[in-house]
User: Which sequence fits this backbone?
């Protein structure tokens, strides 16, 4: 006689795995978005601090890349502006003006932007002088 699982036992196992997955996958996605939001928040703080320090020493800033190097997987970088895209939608713009740094957040752009709003990240205008 062969030892094996019956079809009914296999169906029960698949149903139980499906129920567990229906709870686990959304939790996993939320924790992933929260982790990315924490990383983006840290990047914003680090970037503004680095820009302020660079401007204090040099009294000018031609390119953001002169002051800091950012992960291009998360950020789109131009000379005076960096942007974060959440699923292809613009979520955060950090732009260097004459003597200030403007941070603009669109909290309805995606899940990461909503998580950033929950973390307390807001629109700011930071003076460099």
Assistant:
């Amino acid at each position: 006689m062969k030892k094996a699982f019956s079809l009914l036992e296999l169906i029960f196992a698949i149903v139980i795995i499906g129920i567990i997955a229906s709870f686990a996958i959304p939790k996993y996605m939320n924790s992933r978005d929260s982790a990315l939001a924490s990383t983006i928040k840290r990047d914003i703080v680090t970037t503004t601090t680095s820009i302020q320090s660079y401007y204090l020493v040099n009294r000018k800033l031609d390119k953001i890349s002169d002051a800091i190097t950012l992960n291009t997987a998360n950020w789109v970088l131009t000379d005076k502006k960096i942007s974060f895209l959440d699923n292809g939608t613009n979520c955060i713009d950090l732009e260097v003006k004459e003597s200030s740094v403007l941070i603009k957040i669109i909290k309805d752009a995606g899940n990461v932007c909503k998580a950033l709003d929950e973390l307390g990240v807001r629109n700011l205008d930071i003076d460099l002088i």
The two ends are 85 Å apart (CA to CA). Residues 7-58 form the longest helix (52 residues). The first strand starts at residue 75 and ends at 77. The chain has three helices and five strands.
